[in-house]
Specification:
Layout: E1 17-22, E2 37-42, H1 45-52, H2 58-65, E3 86-90, E4 94-98
Antiparallel strand pairs: 1-2, 3-4
């Protein structure tokens, strides 16, 4: 799966991350209740620091200094070991974030599993 996004800012209390959902088929993507998996990919600190040195991310510099993967309320249980993406690229040309995720495609969609819902089970 592949999609394009902007590099997220670091907000107070959370490590920089991107939410994603997995759907059983393309026809289901317009209905969030049909998601079979919801998770987050944590972004590596070196990429965050490079992006946050750019204009427009000033608040992210101080927010990043106040949080760590181990203190984050989602990634803290394993310091992001299972959800830390690999990043290639640079600020000028853009980044590619990669995370291998196992998904059981026989999973039945469950209500409340979207962003802001309960964290994914491991």
């Amino acid at each position: 799966m592949r999609y394009t996004s902007v590099f997220p800012a670091c907000y107070d209390g959370r490590w920089p991350h991107i939410h994603f959902e997995v759907y059983p088929d393309q026809a289901s993507i317009t209905d969030s209740t049909k998601a079979i998996a919801t998770s987050q990919v944590a972004l590596p600190q070196n990429a965050c620091e490079a992006v946050y040195a750019q204009p427009g991310y000033e608040a992210s510099v101080s927010n990043l200094q106040k949080v760590s993967l181990s203190s984050d309320n989602v990634f803290g249980d394993d310091s992001g070991a299972l959800q830390l993406g690999t990043v290639t690229g640079d600020v000028t040309g853009g980044y590619t974030v990669t995370l291998k995720v196992g998904v059981d495609t026989t999973t039945t969609p469950a209500a409340g599993g979207g962003p802001g819902g309960p964290p994914p089970s491991r």
